[in-house]
Amino acid sequence: MRKYYISALKIEMDLPEELIHPNLKPFEKEFEQADVVITLCSKKCDNCSFFNAEGSEKIVAEDDTVYYTPSFLNIKFANAVFLLGICISEENGHYIIKCCINSTSSISEYDREEFFDRIKGAVFCVLQKTGHYVLHSASVIINGKVYAFSAFSGTGKTTHIKKLQKAMMCPVFNGDLLAFAEEDGEVKAFALPWCGESKEFTYKNLPLGGIIFLNRGEINEIKSLSGFQAEILLMQRLYAINFTEEALKDLSCNLDKLSTKIKFATLRCLPNDEAGIVSGKYIVKEMAEK
Amino acid sequence: MRIAKNYSVQKICGRTVLIPVGQSAIDGAKILTLNDTAEWIVKNIMNGISIDELHKKATEHFQASPEETGMLKNSINAFIEELSSNKLIAE
To answer: In chain B, which residues have their Cβ closer than 8 Å to the Cβ of A250?
Structure first.
């Protein structure tokens, strides 16, 4: 069984070797004792009756159907051939993510890519339940801290990161995603093996220096954000699904605490070299110390 | 009249907001920030108040003079209409 760590969360992958994506390499840090254990396992099934579990609420997300109660969450994928669905349940801090696989189907390269991408959502759901949040962002490491640039797809995160790298000679932390949570009194950025199209990620866990919300603009301009504005933007950019009012309450309560420990800014920029210099200078002068 | 089941009233950094939950959150429904007056109205709607009761209670709460009552009523109706058009109100 392969083991991976995100913060003090241990992910056990009890999966067939042919389903393990090559991007999943051992993490830098290993914990002797994990607070929460997530076990990913596969089961062959042709007809998952528990997808329609009695008493569950149902929502539809991009044609996939999610059934949920306070104790479990089942996702049934639309037009699925190989991975039919995922079932998440929890008992005493041990989360089980069962991947329901079509027993009649053989595993192709496409299946493996799809599987790797789909289990991401299930792992993020569990991370959210344990106070770890995943932000859609491209992030860099400057002076030992992680700075994340968050924007909707197509805005220019990757372009800006390249300009920033040119200006600051800084490495990429993750090209697409950032997991963060409070640990030992500070907010830390945690490595994830998912990185979107960018293919760039690390296995380091480092302090989170700041989050910058990026928009296209006519000039290159960066400004600090109030806690309220930042939290509203953060809520819209997180991979956090508010299935229930209780989940939403937990989210806003946790973000209230976390946002006091993170510096936020908003950047309007052009896709030019000056934009990288502007954000690099701001990070070093305004965000690095807190 | 009630706030729709798919919206939740939350405090963020001390300010009151209406946030979509469940299917509405997936569908990209908007987060609405409320000022003090809107918050007072929403809290009353959450308690299942009727529109007539709301007019009466608002007149007392905001100490509206007889001349101001009509304007207050219109403002409340416009706000309720805005909530309804955004599917934030359930009958």
So the answer is: none
Instruction: Kindly list the residues from chain B whose CB atom is less than 8 angstroms away from the CB atom of residue A243.
Output: 21-22, 25
- Compute CA A290 distance to the chain's CA centroid, rounded to the nearest angstrom: 25
Does the distance separating the beta carbons of B13 and A248 come in below 8 Å? no
* pLDDT for A204: 78
- Claim: this prediction has a pTM higher than 0.80: yes
Q: Does B25 touch chain A (CB under 8 A)?
A: yes
In whole angstroms, how large is the CA radius of gyration of chain A?
A: 20
β-pair type (B7-12, B2-3):
unpaired
Q: Which of A178, A279, A277 is nearest to A223 (CA)?
A: A279
Specify whether the CB–CB gap between A131 and A254 falls below 8 A: yes
Q: Could you give the C-alpha distances from A155 to A161, A178, A265, A267, in angstroms and in order?
A: 12, 17, 16, 12
Given CB atoms, is B33 within the 8 Å cutoff of chain A?
yes
* Contact call for residues A163 and A228 (beta carbons, < 8 A): no
- Tell me what pLDDT residue A26 has: 56
pLDDT digits (tens, 9 = 90+) for A172-218: 999 888 999 998 889 999 878 777 666 777 777 899 999 999 999 99
**Does B11 touch chain A if contact means CB atoms closer than 8 Å?**
yes
* Cα within 13 Å of Cα(A244), Cβ side: 15
Q: Provide the β-strand partners of residue A76.
A: A65, A85
Q: How many residue pairs from chains A and B have C-beta atoms closer than 8 A?
A: 53
CB contact under 8 A, A244 and B23: no
